[in-house]
Amino acid sequence: MSPSSEQYRIEIKERLQESWEALEMEVPAAIERCKNFLKKSPANRLESRGKLKKLKGRFKGILQYDITDEARVWYRVDRKIV
Known about the structure:
The protein is α+β, with helices and mostly antiparallel strands. It has one domain (14-75). Helix content is 28%, strand content 13%. It has two helices and three strands. It has helices at residues 17-26, 28-40; strands at residues 52-54, 63-66, 72-75. The model has no long low-confidence stretch (mean pLDDT 90).
């Protein structure tokens, strides 16, 4: 997927929606940076500026983006084009 053409869609599990919205109120700039990163290049470690980690072991295949020092988002990238 070319960064200049299409963007990824962010899907938040219903049970996590309330926590996501609370973070949007608490740290709006950090959430906006996170959303922009997830939409444009969710697996690009260079673009994340040190905020992206690939988890290992039983969490292999899951990526972690550090929103703040205390808040993180775990996600998977679905590369299928819908």
